Amino acid sequence: MNLRSTHYMAVIVLLTMIFTGCGKAQIPEYQAGSGQSNNTNSQTGNGNANAPSADTAQQRADLVAIADGRKEDEDPTAASVDKAFVNRIYKQNEALILKQSKVECNDDAGDGVEVIGTVKGSFTKPEAQETAYLYERCRAGRSFGIGGLVIAAGDAVAVHYFFGEGGLYSGISSPGDINGNGTAEIVLRSVGSGQGYTEAMVTVFEFADPNAKAIGQTMTYSSNGGAAMSEADILTTAYNISVEKGTTPVFYRETYEMRGSANKWSLAKKSEQFKLDEVTVNDLQKVSN
Question: What is the pTM of this model?
Fold first, then answer.
């Protein structure tokens, strides 16, 4: 499947659900250590959610965290210098982006771009000291629009992509180099809600080649909390995703459930190997490299 199709996954899975928002899901609170990203946690709930048991995949020394659907990750506020840099890069390419984009911004779209989050690593070549900037220019409706990803070493742009026709991304992180080729992967998060349903997904990308490569995608969170006929019918599911590094990375998933309005996770399925869903990157359009 392609990225555009997977951004409509909620439509298929949840009986023609249409995304109406791309904001952050209201995920019940979970207190735990973070993975290898520079995110901070902004959590909801009353703080009584379960902590993971000692044998969870997340605590295995040979595994690296990808995403935990029990936590609501929030990227740190971008520094003013980051905002100025990304806005300058966008302005230099704005005419090309607007010409190629099939999405038109809302009339009330302001000027410039918003930096959603940043992460540091060697993304396009080994030992490079680079920063990846996830930005959003505007919305068209609630879930689509124009956004982009800039990877740069200092002021030198290594690669610049824009997207949004298939949906916008809401966050960025990096697990480091998971396949041993000397470059770090990037994880982009997407969240959508509509008709009482909420879903969150992550897509793992690699940018070592001249063109972006999607290693795969998986769901991290789903809830029918706004659509259930009664409190007893509410089912919220979260997945704790991690990876064993190697030439062929092996991914693991724990499944947690929460029923009704209780703010307490229960382990529904212990850690198990699984494969990410295959995706293509035709929704990411290269601006420059």
Answer: 0.78
